[in-house]
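Treating backbone geometry as a discrete language has practical consequences that deserve illustration. Part of our work consisted of pairing the sequence of a single chain with a tokenised description of its backbone. We regard such an encoding as a compact summary of how the chain folds. The amino acid sequence and the backbone structure tokens for this protein are reproduced below.
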Amino acid sequence: MKLIVGLGNPGKEYENTRHNAGYKTMDEIAEKLNLSFSVSKFKGLVAKGNYKGETVYLLKPTTFMNLSGEAVHAIMDFYRIDIKDLLVIYDDKDTELGKIRLRRQGSAGGQNGIKNIIAHLHTQEFDRIRVGIGSNNGKNMADFVLSNFSKDEKETFMVAVKNAADAAIESITTPFDKVMNKYNGK
């Protein structure tokens, strides 16, 4: 059983913001796997499916970014999902726009959704895919991550979303180290 989580903020006003890179990637994964999201008791939108014999849950927490750990913890507890079967996808200002970065573990690096997940799971040892949203170049961080992409930026960003979705799907049945070697820097 695998759990793939995409971080973001619920609501139309946040739909196309940089902070919703995880949500955008989850939508891409759901489309590729022909799954649809529905409201769940886990403080999020959940899709369940099967990929090459593996049960897969997709989760978009609706707790807002800073409380993402509540939803992740709830679904992992309920289905008894092991930490090694968790993959979290989120925006990253330190990764170049249009690129993705895969990691096995690490600190939150200032990303509040990841901080909250680490706090709820009591570990930072879970797989993750960071989707590059570009640098804030001295702009206020909150304003930057809650801003929309320009038309040119959006095209570049969507390349990263597609690569992140492909990497996430591949990681369902392939060891994460192999997926990292294939997709890091794409």
Notes: The chain has a mean pLDDT of 94. The longest strand covers residues 44-51.
